[in-house]
Design goal:
The protein is built from eight helices and six strands, in the order αααββααββαβααβ. With about 220 residues, it is mainly alpha-helical.
């Protein structure tokens, strides 16, 4: 799951007093942002194993600080505290924290058993990465439905153009993830590419949501 993680961010951003869309896009991928950052010094680890799943060759064998439920909850608490300090809005902080935790819950459906509760076995994952005819439509439906929901619940003086540009960026990045060339072995280019993608999409979301307001009931 890649852009599907942004669905909770779009839904949360449509609520009154929510954090901004850019902030919530960071929240949606904060677990993976942390994972990419921890890969670089070797605190967490992965390797490339072609065929380990039908869709993803990454063997994510050591990520206790980001992809355990406990770890994700700690990241959520810290991020929620930062959002509260910046906005002084409890609803914004809680919503952002829930979006962070949603990453682990969504991953539970697509990962093979490499997620944990506390950072050690048992390992969890339902493995939808092995079923692309299920995972791919599901991901499209999640983010597509969330985009439509956000568009209907918010409004901007200039209409929806910025939002549909964001949708085009999401589609392009997802197509690259699904159909683009895969690295044959692990290198630091992998976390660097991840961090670039998350930063670019968060910036695009910040721009797309900058002039949008929640519509009056």
């Amino acid at each position: 799951m890649f852009i599907g993680h942004f669905a909770p961010a779009l839904v949360a951003a449509a609520r009154p007093k929510a954090a901004g869309l850019g902030t919530l896009f960071v929240a949606a991928q904060l677990v993976d942002i942390g994972f990419a950052a921890l890969l670089i010094p070797g605190v967490e680890a992965m390797r490339i194993v072609p065929g380990i799943t039908a869709m993803n060759p990454m063997d994510l064998y050591h990520m206790p600080f980001t992809h355990s439920l406990l770890g994700a909850s700690i990241w959520a608490a810290v991020f929620g505290t930062i959002v509260w300090a910046a906005t002084k809005r409890r609803d914004a902080a809680i919503g952002a924290a829930l979006v962070v935790v949603s990453h682990w819950l969504i991953d539970l459906f697509v990962h093979i058993p490499d997620l944990t509760l506390l950072g050690s076995p048992p390992r969890l994952g339902l493995g939808l990465w092995n079923y692309p005819l299920i995972e791919m439509p599901l991901e499209i439906a999640l983010v597509g439905g969330a985009l439509v929901y956000y568009a209907r619940r918010t409004q901007a003086p200039s209409g929806h153009l910025r939002l549909w540009i964001l949708a085009a960026f999401l589609a392009a990045f997802q197509a690259i993830d699904w159909f683009g060339p895969k690295e044959p072995v692990y290198s630091r280019a992998i976390p660097a590419t991840m961090l670039f993608a998350y930063a670019f999409l968060a910036a695009a979301a910040l721009w797309a949501g900058a002039n949008r307001k929640v519509a009056a009931a």
